[in-house]
Amino acid sequence: MKNKLYDSPADALDGLLFDGMTIMSGGFGLSGNPESLIPEIRARGVRGLTVISNNAGADGFGLWMLLESRQVKKMISSYVGENKLFEQQYLSGELELELTPQGTLAERIRAGGAGIPAFYTKTGVGTVVAEGKPIETFDGVEYVRETWLRADLAIIKAWKADPEGNLMFRKTARNFNPNMATAGKVTVVEVEEIVAAGALDPDCIHTPGIYVDRIVRSTINEKRIEKLTTRAPEIVA
Questions:
Q1: Please, are residues 24 and 48 in contact by the beta-carbon 8 Å criterion?
Q2: Does the model's pTM come out above 0.90?
Q3: Cα separation of 131 and 134, whole Å?
Q4: How many angstroms separate the CA atoms of 215 and 158, rounded?
Q5: Structural domain includes residue 234
Q6: Which top EC class is given (predicted)?
């Protein structure tokens, strides 16, 4: 069996990065971001990147690093909030943005992994989302045609992996990661824990190892809280 385990995030990305490439990056807000791989992409200095991600991290975190270094040419995303740099670059015309409804974004990625070039959805009909796209009527209802998304590289954050690349995700960190793992020509996964072969319950595996090319133990696991809400404790008489 091919060895999929790599010693460091830098080693796991060796030979995969080039200018103008398309990268899928898992994560939703601050949850499930490939925190260890993103800094290595920044360090390599590749430019003109198209990045597919639900959002671009948050101020000072995640994909924000690649925006700050001006390595990203275009974002394909569903959410711009919580990232002032993302907003500024887009509004100034410095950054291209393909804004996609969140469910449509997830389905476009899933379609890319499943080999489905296009599909129809009601979401976005009659809005700027549908501009320039074919519209078809099914059972008297209009649907817009959306196309698949695929990438040269998918960078993923998982909780556990075995040496064959079978993955488990933890709670909301699952988000876009499983779909993206299927839609990259090469999929690199950083994991919090690498377990022995056969240690994962087959019924609990979220992504089969056939989709995973390289695995590395994550070096950054900050687990930030995006919005902390507290309340005063109740005083019991």
A1: no
A2: yes
A3: 9
A4: 10
A5: no
A6: transferase
